[in-house]
Each structure stands twice: as C-alpha cells, then as structure tokens.
C-alpha cells in the first residue's frame, strides 16, 4: 500500500467528521500559531537588534585590535591583511562577500572653506554604502563608469556638506581632496546606528580615484557581508579564528561590536525561549491529548470498519499505518493552519505595532515537522489499539 | 480444497469453558457448492470464521489448498483472506462512507493493485453482479439486495478460489434472496467453490451438498444433488 493511498483514506475519514476534526485541530492550531507569533516577534527583535550593529546589508567589520596599533606606534604593520586572507574569508560558510575599503584621513577644501580631518574612503562597490546603511539623499550615487574610469567624483555626508557649502546643496561643485579637483555628485542621508555614534565626517571616492591621490594602500579593514541564514556572531568568530591562524597570532583581529551583537541577541533569545517554552508546551500538550482522545473515539467508532478491512485481507500493520496516517494528517493540517494563522498575526503585528516581526523558513519548517512528530506521538496509542482488534469481535458489532 | 480434521473451538476457561465446535471433520473439494445448515447458536459462524482464516481452531488441523493454516503467521493469513477467499456476510458489511465502487476496490488496495487496473477490476466485478450503473452510489442509497450484490462483487474482485457466505439471504426479501442465489448458481457453474451457511432448507436445497450442524457437531452430510 502506498503512502498516498493512506493519506487519501485519512482525508476521507477526517472530512467525514468535519466539525469534530476542526475542534480536534484547534489545540494544535493555537499551539503552533502562538509559537509562530512569539518566534516572529523574537526573531524580528533579534534581527532589528543585530541590524543596529551590522547594518541593513548584514555586514560586520574586521579590524586590527588596539594592541596591534600600540605595538607598532599607531601604524598598521605591513601585510596585516593579505590577499590570501581575503580568499580564505570568502570560503567561510555564511560569508557572502568580502568587502575592502581604503581609508585616509585628510583635509577638504572648497574655495576659502575647509574641512579638516575628514575620513576619505576609497570604495570599489556601492554595496559598501548599503552595508553601512548609507543612502544618497540628493544627487546621485556612483555609477559603474565612475568605478571603471576612476572618475573624479565624490559622495559626502551632511556634516561635510554643511561645513563646506553652508545652506547650498554643493552638488556638482568642485572641491579639492589632496590637491586633486573632485566633483561632488551626491549627498548622503544622515547616518543612523553606529555611524551616528562615532561621527560622520566621511567622503567617498571610487577606489581608483582614491589610489591616484594616495597611492596603493594597505587594507585597513575588511567587511564581511553575511548570509541572513547564518548567525553573525558565529561567522564573525570563525573569521577571526581563520585570520589569527593564518598569521599565527592571538587576539590581533577583532570583529567590531561582536560582543554587543552576541549579548543583545542572547538576551532576546533567552526571554523568548522561556515564554515560548511555556505557552507552546501547554497548548501543544492539550492539543496532543485532544488528538489522542479523538483518535481513540474514532477507533472505537470504527470497530466494524476495522473488522471489515481485516476480513478483506488488511494486515495488522495496514491498520496501524492507516490510523497513524490519520492522526499525522490531522496534526499536520492543524500545524499548517497554525502556521498560516500565526504568520498572518505576526504580519499584522508587524504593520500595526512598532514591534518588528519575522517568520523565518527554518521556523516554518520546524512547525510543520513538529506537528507531524506530534501526530505520530499521540496517534501511536490509538493506532496500536486499532491494529490489535479481533476481526470476529469487530464484525459482530452493529 | 478444504480439509478439516478433529477441529475443536472452545471459549472461556475452567468451569466456564464451553466447546462451540466439537471434533469437526470436514472435506470440501474444489468446485463444490456446500450448504451448512443448523439452528441459531449451533456454531455455524464459528466454523465459517475458521474456514475463512479469521479465527484459529483450539485443537485440530485445517488444511486449505494443501497448506496448514493453523501453523501460519498472521500476515500470511491476511494474504490468504485477501487472495484466496471471498467473504459474504448476512449484514453485507459495506463501509457506509464509501461508494459501491470504492467498497469493491478495498480488497484490491490490500492486494497492492493501483490506478486504472484497480478501477477496471472493480467495474468488471460490479458488472458481473449487474450493478455497474450504481457504482457511484453510497450503500445507504441502495436496496438491501443491491447492497448484498455489491458485497458479492467485493468478494469476487480478487478472483478467490473459495466463496464463504454466512446467511447471505438472511436479511433479504424473497426476490432479492433469489437473485443472490441465482448469482451463486452462476458462480458455481463457473467452477467457484462455495460454502454457504443458512438455516433455511429451501436455500440449502440450491447447493449440491448439505451439511447439518447441531450443537457444535456435524450431524450428517447428505447429498442434495451430485457433487462435482
Ligand atoms: N467469543 C465468544 N465467547 C464466548 N462464546 C462465544 C463466542 N463466540 C461465539 N460464542 C458462542 O458460540 C456459540 C455459536 O455461535 P455462532 O457460531 O455464532 O452460532 P451460529 O452462527 O450457528 O448462530 C454461541 O452459543 C455463541 O454464544
Ligand atoms: Mg451465525
């Protein structure tokens, strides 16, 4: 007998008692949907929290530890980051992209005005801006041609713009960076998150333009764009480990804010787990007992059916599988309804309240698998009872 | 085909122990049409359940098609019931949720026959009992006689060698009962072995051999027409 055959029989039986089936599923529906909602709120909070540190692009920055600078009088030792490092970081599971930036601090001039101590970045892709949550407010972003040709163009932050141009936009104006004329093409939005805290005196140039001004520089930091499916914390740790092994060093490489990322996430996760644990446990237990109860009633009610099937050549395992499939199907349908309902509620919470929510694929799959396991657990007793019935006794029933 | 030796069936233990069947010896050859007659409570159904591999004797041996069923595993017995025996009951025993067609398909499901072949075989069996046009009806939408014919189609669908009928006309009016017995005549002519239980001697007269059972013992075996 095929699985599909059993599922069809199960659906027939479930549909034969619609009201009862719905009531039976209710416990599972409530259990699964409340888990989905709570996990969605928890994961939404977690995502929001780690986004504060990793940006919308989900990146982390690897930097030299303080002691590296202390050891070498504030200079980054040569070959601190090598091409080989970049290659190996790319191979770590969960690393989507390895992004490098070049940076110098220097002064900017516009006519008689100046801006001292700006952070001048050379970037090779707009992805870096996204990783830092930088959006262009006015003007335009860099285009591929700007990167290819090393065009003399720049993006500046609002604080730089205010200092150099006062209340003028500054777009298309020529400023001097390291004595080279550079045209401002875009003004970025005010920074949020990390950049707001550490100051925002940035100017971005295409990397080729940057190199023309400052020459080929050592890589001063590396950003890793991390796959959303992976934990930022563990991928970050793995990256540091790889780098320290490469250079036979200890603790010379750091992920910015890794500690905060980890701590914040764990806090949310711990509270979440406690809440889910109790709600899910109780409602699913109630749901499971409901399934078992109804299946036992169903077996008793269908004694004659069991007798008929046995007389027609069904084996005991055929009967066992039939009733087990029925309870699994029942729980699975309950689980799917719970998943749909929970996702809907989570979505509504997401748009109607300030709480961010996120229903992730692993949680959805988990809910479905869990309800199936549930069906087996609470269906095994009734199914076993059904399979042990005496066909003659069964047929005698009316 | 059927060879029973010294079969006893008892229920209960100690003082409460009752022998429902006592030292039964019975041989039925292939192609025979046998009627088992006896009053209510005489042990007819008990004997039939043993013949149909639904029950095991307390003592004695039962050989079916040369194989000793009393020594067989449960799973093999299920296979014998599925492949070699067709049951027909007084109360039809159709599944009320399923259409005539689906009821007839049941033995085929357990035989592992799928898809179109299963549909075709069930339709053929329904045709044989003249109910192909009622295949989508539920049992509740059919008369008693029609329900019993669906049950016969179900018993025939796996082309078993032996048909066991426990008072097949017991719940039917005269006309429907005759209809069922006419079907049995036809099946007998086609070479099926039939064992039918009845307490109506007119019905028993349709068979070509009659066995009387009284108080758990076979009383006599009389020939009512030549056995094949
Ligand atoms: N499981 C059982 N336990 C005790 N007695 C039984 C059981 N099954 C049948 N009997 C008894 O065996 C006798 C024969 O029953 P049965 O074979 O059904 O008779 P018939 O079909 O000839 O009317 C009856 O007296 C019945 O009460
Ligand atoms: Mg009887």
Automatic annotation (TrEMBL), chain A:
<keyword id="KW-1003">Cell membrane</keyword>
<feature type="transmembrane region" description="Helical">
    <location>
        <begin position="361"/>
        <end position="381"/>
    </location>
</feature>
<keyword id="KW-0472">Membrane</keyword>
<feature type="domain" description="MacB-like periplasmic core">
    <location>
        <begin position="21"/>
        <end position="238"/>
    </location>
</feature>
<comment type="similarity">
    <text>Belongs to the ABC-4 integral membrane protein family.</text>
</comment>
<dbReference type="InterPro" id="IPR050250">
    <property type="entry name" value="Macrolide_Exporter_MacB"/>
</dbReference>
<feature type="transmembrane region" description="Helical">
    <location>
        <begin position="320"/>
        <end position="349"/>
    </location>
</feature>
<dbReference type="GO" id="GO:0005886">
    <property type="term" value="C:plasma membrane"/>
</dbReference>
<feature type="transmembrane region" description="Helical">
    <location>
        <begin position="271"/>
        <end position="299"/>
    </location>
</feature>
<feature type="transmembrane region" description="Helical">
    <location>
        <begin position="21"/>
        <end position="42"/>
    </location>
</feature>
<dbReference type="GO" id="GO:0022857">
    <property type="term" value="F:transmembrane transporter activity"/>
</dbReference>
<protein>
    <submittedName>
        <fullName>Putative ABC transport system permease protein</fullName>
    </submittedName>
</protein>
<keyword id="KW-0812">Transmembrane</keyword>
<dbReference type="InterPro" id="IPR003838">
    <property type="entry name" value="ABC3_permease_C"/>
</dbReference>
<dbReference type="Pfam" id="PF02687">
    <property type="entry name" value="FtsX"/>
</dbReference>
<dbReference type="InterPro" id="IPR025857">
    <property type="entry name" value="MacB_PCD"/>
</dbReference>
<feature type="domain" description="ABC3 transporter permease C-terminal">
    <location>
        <begin position="278"/>
        <end position="391"/>
    </location>
</feature>
<dbReference type="Pfam" id="PF12704">
    <property type="entry name" value="MacB_PCD"/>
</dbReference>
<keyword id="KW-1133">Transmembrane helix</keyword>
TrEMBL record, chain B:
<dbReference type="GO" id="GO:0005524">
    <property type="term" value="F:ATP binding"/>
</dbReference>
<keyword id="KW-0547">Nucleotide-binding</keyword>
<keyword id="KW-0813">Transport</keyword>
<feature type="domain" description="ABC transporter">
    <location>
        <begin position="2"/>
        <end position="228"/>
    </location>
</feature>
<dbReference type="InterPro" id="IPR017871">
    <property type="entry name" value="ABC_transporter-like_CS"/>
</dbReference>
<keyword id="KW-0067">ATP-binding</keyword>
<dbReference type="InterPro" id="IPR017911">
    <property type="entry name" value="MacB-like_ATP-bd"/>
</dbReference>
<dbReference type="GO" id="GO:0005886">
    <property type="term" value="C:plasma membrane"/>
</dbReference>
<protein>
    <submittedName>
        <fullName>Putative ABC transport system ATP-binding protein</fullName>
    </submittedName>
</protein>
<dbReference type="InterPro" id="IPR027417">
    <property type="entry name" value="P-loop_NTPase"/>
</dbReference>
<dbReference type="GO" id="GO:0016887">
    <property type="term" value="F:ATP hydrolysis activity"/>
</dbReference>
<dbReference type="GO" id="GO:0098796">
    <property type="term" value="C:membrane protein complex"/>
</dbReference>
<dbReference type="Pfam" id="PF00005">
    <property type="entry name" value="ABC_tran"/>
</dbReference>
<dbReference type="InterPro" id="IPR015854">
    <property type="entry name" value="ABC_transpr_LolD-like"/>
</dbReference>
<dbReference type="InterPro" id="IPR003439">
    <property type="entry name" value="ABC_transporter-like_ATP-bd"/>
</dbReference>
<dbReference type="InterPro" id="IPR003593">
    <property type="entry name" value="AAA+_ATPase"/>
</dbReference>
<dbReference type="GO" id="GO:0022857">
    <property type="term" value="F:transmembrane transporter activity"/>
</dbReference>
């Amino acid at each position: 007998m095929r699985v599909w055959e059993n599922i069809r029989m199960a659906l027939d039986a479930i549909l034969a008692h619609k009201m009862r089936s719905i009531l039976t599923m209710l416990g599972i529906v409530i259990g699964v949907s409340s888990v989905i909602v709570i996990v969605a709120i928890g994961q939404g909070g977690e995502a929001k929290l780690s986004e504060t540190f990793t940006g919308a692009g989900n990146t982390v920055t690897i930097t030299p530890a303080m002691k590296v600078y202390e050891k070498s009088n504030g200079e980054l030792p040569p070959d601190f980051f090598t091409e080989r490092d970049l290659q190996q970081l790319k191979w770590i599971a969960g690393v989507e992209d390895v992004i490098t930036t070049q940076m110098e601090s220097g002064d900017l001039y516009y006519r008689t005005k100046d801006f001292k101590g700006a952070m001048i970045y050379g970037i090779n892709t707009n992805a870096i801006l996204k990783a830092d949550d930088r959006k262009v407010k006015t003007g335009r972003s860099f285009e591929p041609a700007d990167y290819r040709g090393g065009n003399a163009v720049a993006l500046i932050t609002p604080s730089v713009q205010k200092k150099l141009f006062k209340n003028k936009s500054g777009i298309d104006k020529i400023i001097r960076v390291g004595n080279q004329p550079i045209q401002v093409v875009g003004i970025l939005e005010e920074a949020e998150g990390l950049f707001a805290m550490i100051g925002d005196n940035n100017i971005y140039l295409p990397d080729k333009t940057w190199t023309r001004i400052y020459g080929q520089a050592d890589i001063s930091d590396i950003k890793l764009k991390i796959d959303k499916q992976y934990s930022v914390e563990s991928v970050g740790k793995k990256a540091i480990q790889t780098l320290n092994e490469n250079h036979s060093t200890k603790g010379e490489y750091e992920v910015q804010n890794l500690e905060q990322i980890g701590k914040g996430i764990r806090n949310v996760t711990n509270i979440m787990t406690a809440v889910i644990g109790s709600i899910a446990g109780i409602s699913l237990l109630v749901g499971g007992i409901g399934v078992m109860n109804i299946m036992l009633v169903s077996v008793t009610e269908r004694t004659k059916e069991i007798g008929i099937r046995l007389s027609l050549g069904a084996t005991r395992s055929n009967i066992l599988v039939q009733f087990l499939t029925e309870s699994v199907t029942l729980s699975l349908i309950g689980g799917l309804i719970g998943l749909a309902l929970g996702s809907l509620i989570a979505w509504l919470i997401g748009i109607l309240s300030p709480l961010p929510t996120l229903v992730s694929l692993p949680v959805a799959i988990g809910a479905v698998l869990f309800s199936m396991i549930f069906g087996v657990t609470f269906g095994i007793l009734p199914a076993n009872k059904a399979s042990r019935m005496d066909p003659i006794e069964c047929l005698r029933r009316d | 085909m059927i060879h029973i030796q010294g079969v006893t069936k008892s229920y209960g233990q100690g003082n409460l122990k009752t022998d429902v069947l006592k030292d039964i010896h019975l041989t039925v050859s292939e192609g025979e049409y046998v009627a088992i007659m006896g009053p209510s409570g005489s042990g007819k159904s008990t004997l039939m359940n043993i013949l149909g591999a639904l029950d095991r004797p307390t003592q004695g041996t039962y050989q079916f098609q040369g194989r000793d069923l009393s020594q067989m595993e449960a799973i093999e017995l299920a296979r014998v019931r599925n492949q070699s025996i067709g049951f027909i009951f007084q109360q039809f025993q159709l599944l009320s949720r399923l259409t005539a067609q689906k009821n007839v398909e049941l033995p085929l499901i357990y035989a592992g026959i799928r898809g179109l072949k299963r549909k075709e075989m069930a339709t053929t069996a329904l045709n044989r009992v003249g109910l192909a046009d009622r295949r989508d009806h539920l049992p509740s939408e059919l008369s008693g006689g029609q329900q019993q014919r669906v049950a016969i189609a179900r018993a025939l669908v796996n082309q078993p060698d032996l048909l066991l009928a426990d008072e097949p006309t017991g719940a039917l009016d005269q006309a429907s009962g005759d209809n069922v017995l006419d079907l049995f005549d036809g099946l007998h002519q086609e070479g099926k072995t039939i064992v039918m239980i009845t307490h109506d001697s007119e019905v028993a007269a349709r068979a070509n051999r009659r066995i009387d059972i009284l108080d758990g013992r076979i009383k006599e075996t009389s020939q009512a027409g030549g056995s094949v």
